[in-house]
Design a protein that fits this description.
This protein has a 4-stranded antiparallel beta sheet, with helices on both faces. A 4-stranded antiparallel beta sheet has the order 5-6-7-8. It folds into 2 domains: 105 residues, Nuclear Transport Factor 2, Chain: A (Roll); 117 residues, Nuclear Transport Factor 2, Chain: A (Roll), CATH 3.10.450.50. The chain is built from 8 helices and 8 strands; from the N terminus they run ααααββββααααββββ. The longest helix is centred in the first third of the chain and has 32 residues. By secondary structure, the chain is α+β, with helices and mostly antiparallel strands. It is globular, with a radius of gyration of 27 Å.
C-alpha cells in the first residue's frame, strides 16, 4: 500500500514539474516576443507612424513616380535652382525636370533628421538606370516642401562621417551633395551649392562648367572619410577615385549668415 502511494506521489510531482516548465517557457516567450519589439512613438503620433517630414517625403516620391509631382511641391529657392537661367517659362522648365523622375522606385532608404529638415538617401531605379539619390524636405509655413532632390551615377564608398553636432551634420550633408552632383549628377545643382562670391571669382558660366568637369575627371567612386568644424566654417575631406588611384580634396564650407544654409566656398587638393 505504501509503495503504491509513494509511486502515486512521485507521478503527481513529475506532472507538476512538467507543467511548471511549460508555464515558465510560455512566460519567457511572452516576455521576449512582446513589448521588447515595439516601435517607440515618433513625431507622427501613434506607434510606428512616420514623422511629418518623412510622410511628406514618401507622399512626394509616390507623386513623382506617378508623374503627378508639381512645382508647388518645391520651395521657391529650389524651383529657382532647377529652372534654366534663360528659360522663357520657368514653371514649364521645372515640370520637364520633374518628369525625368517618372516611374522612379527607391530602395535601401536611410532617413536622417538635420535641424528642421528630413533627408532621405538610397538607391533610385527608373527603367534602365540605378543611381544614388538624395531628397530633402523642410518645414515651410504649416507644412513641408521639397528643397533638394538629385540623382547621381556615382555612389559613396563607405559611410559619411558620423557626428552629433547638427551644424557639422548639415555642413557634411551639403558637402556630400556637392561632391555627388559634381562627380555624377547635374552640374547646375552643383553650382547651387557654391557660395556666390566663390562662384563669381571662378569666372564666366562657361568657364565654371569647364572647371567643374576638370574636377570630376574620370571619377568612378568617392568617399568622405573625415569632417571637422571650427565656428561657422567646416572642412570635409573627399577622396575621388579615378584610374585606380585616390586623390584627396578639401571641401571648405561656410554657414551663410542670412539664410543659415551651408555653402561650399572652396574645393582644392588636400
Amino acid at each position: 500500500m505504501m509503495r503504491r502511494t509513494t509511486r502515486g506521489l512521485g507521478l503527481l510531482m513529475g506532472l507538476a514539474l512538467l507543467a511548471g516548465c511549460k508555464d515558465t517557457a510560455a512566460t519567457f516567450r511572452a516576455t521576449t516576443a512582446g513589448p521588447a519589439q515595439a516601435t517607440p512613438p515618433t513625431a507622427g503620433g501613434a506607434v510606428g507612424d512616420p514623422s511629418p517630414g518623412r510622410a511628406k517625403a514618401d507622399e512626394f516620391l509616390k507623386a513623382l513616380s506617378e508623374g503627378k509631382a508639381t512645382p508647388d511641391d518645391l520651395t521657391a529657392a529650389f524651383r529657382k535652382t532647377l529652372s534654366q537661367p534663360k528659360a522663357e517659362d520657368a514653371v514649364a522648365d521645372v515640370k520637364t525636370w520633374l518628369g525625368k523622375f517618372e516611374k522612379l522606385t527607391v530602395e535601401d532608404v536611410t532617413e536622417t533628421a538635420i535641424g528642421n529638415a528630413t533627408v532621405l538617401r538610397g538607391r533610385a531605379k527608373t527603367p534602365g538606370t540605378i543611381t544614388a539619390f538624395c531628397l530633402r524636405v523642410v518645414r515651410e509655413g504649416d507644412g513641408y516642401k521639397v528643397d533638394w532632390l538629385h540623382r547621381a551615377d556615382r555612389f559613396l564608398a563607405g559611410s559619411a562621417p558620423k557626428t552629433s553636432d547638427p551644424n557639422l551634420a548639415a555642413a557634411t550633408d551639403t558637402a556630400r551633395n556637392f561632391v555627388e552632383t559634381l562627380v555624377g549628377g547635374d552640374l547646375r545643382q552643383t553650382q547651387a551649392l557654391m557660395a556666390p562670391k566663390w562662384l563669381a571669382a571662378l569666372g564666366e558660366p562657361g568657364f565654371v562648367i569647364q572647371k567643374l568637369r576638370s574636377w570630376r575627371g574620370e571619377t568612378v567612386a568617392y568617399a568622405l572619410p573625415a569632417a571637422d568644424l571650427a565656428g561657422d566654417t567646416a572642412a570635409v575631406t573627399a577622396e575621388l577615385e579615378a584610374g585606380g588611384q585616390k586623390t584627396a580634396y578639401r571641401v571648405t564650407l561656410k554657414k551663410d549668415a542670412a539664410t543659415g544654409r551651408w555653402l561650399v566656398e572652396d574645393f582644392a587638393k588636400a
